[in-house]
Write a structure and sequence with these properties.
Strand content: under 5%
Number of helices: 12
Oligomer: single chain
Helix content: over 70%
Shape: globular
Largest sheet: none
Distance between the termini: 40 Å
């Protein structure tokens, strides 16, 4: 019979895996939606929805967020926006499966970002994960039958996510998580809205394909996804959290096969397997590296 702590850990890990399944599904939904609705208008509405969903629980704590918290959250929100813009632009040109596996590389990029930004030491096993994932990326992009430019855009988005995660681990623990995330979502929305207006992408979303993608990404993948992550990480270890997040590219490949008709060749599947091996090898140590970045609370 499971004890209370074991059951709580299982529920937390299960919740995280469910979040990664939602993230995997959004690759298909977003790819379909941006074929019908302008890219930056879609992202602006997505983050507007996330901001509105987070507004009620953030109303009180955001008033107490100091100026430093606003600056940090807004900066990370714009960095997150850059990642989403690059990933979504790449998704327009590459397959769902390729985008999912390449996005998953943020796992091995994040400790490298921590080295570059904060000069922390990382274990040799992380470098092994980097080597495996790099070899896998070369095979996946060369054998996936997808657009190489699209793969590069998604790769750049993954690098932006890694910077955002490393900075988040360093600065976010100083502030209320709901207030911090609300400002992040607000900053991302503002950035996308400015770009959408400048490009003349001003039109109302139409049709279930677009609105379905907006609601799932705005409500479940962004706002509620973060809240579940925060709740779960209070109940399980960083290592278990990291390994749960390794499921995201797997779900993207499953939904890409099932809903988008993705069919990778043998070489591409070998590349995907190497990327997953690199992620699984590097992720537990990467999670421990990130814990070194968390400052002591005052």
């Amino acid at each position: 019979m499971l004890g209370g702590d074991s059951l709580a850990i299982m529920v937390a890990v299960g919740a995280l895996v469910l979040v990664t399944a939602i993230w995997g599904l959004t690759f298909v939904q977003v790819k379909d939606a941006v074929e019908l609705y302008p890219l930056f208008a879609f992202l602006a509405v997505r983050f507007a929805i996330a901001t509105v969903v987070l507004a009620p629980p953030a109303r009180r704590p955001v008033r107490e967020l100091p100026r430093g918290g606003w600056v940090a959250a807004a900066g990370l929100g714009l960095l997150l926006a850059a990642g989403y813009a690059l990933q979504t632009a790449g998704l327009e040109r590459t397959s769902v499966s390729n985008a999912g596996f390449i996005t998953g590389l943020y796992v091995v990029f994040t400790p490298l970002a921590a080295v570059a930004l904060f000069r922390v030491r990382i274990a040799a096993i992380v470098w092994a994960g980097v080597a495996l994932s790099t070899a896998g990326l070369a095979l996946l992009s060369g054998g996936g039958g997808a657009d190489g430019v699209g793969d590069l855009l998604v790769l750049a988005g993954s690098a932006a996510y890694s910077l955002q995660i490393a900075l988040m681990e360093r600065y976010a623990p100083r502030y209320d998580p709901v207030a911090f995330t609300f400002v992040e979502m607000l900053a991302a929305f503002a950035g996308f809205a400015v770009v959408a207006v400048a490009l003349g992408q001003i039109e109302l979303p139409r049709g279930w394909t677009v609105w379905g993608a907006l609601l799932v990404t705005g409500v479940f993948a962004s706002a509620l996804g973060f809240l579940v992550q925060t709740w779960a990480q209070q109940r399980t270890s960083a290592t278990r959290t990291a390994l749960a997040f390794a499921m995201e590219p797997v779900w993207a490949a499953i939904f890409g096969f099932w809903l988008a008709g993705d069919r990778l060749g043998t070489v591409a599947w070998v590349g995907a397997a190497l990327i997953m091996a690199g992620i699984v090898v590097a992720e537990p140590s990467a999670a421990r590296t990130l814990r070194k970045l968390v400052p002591l609370r005052a």
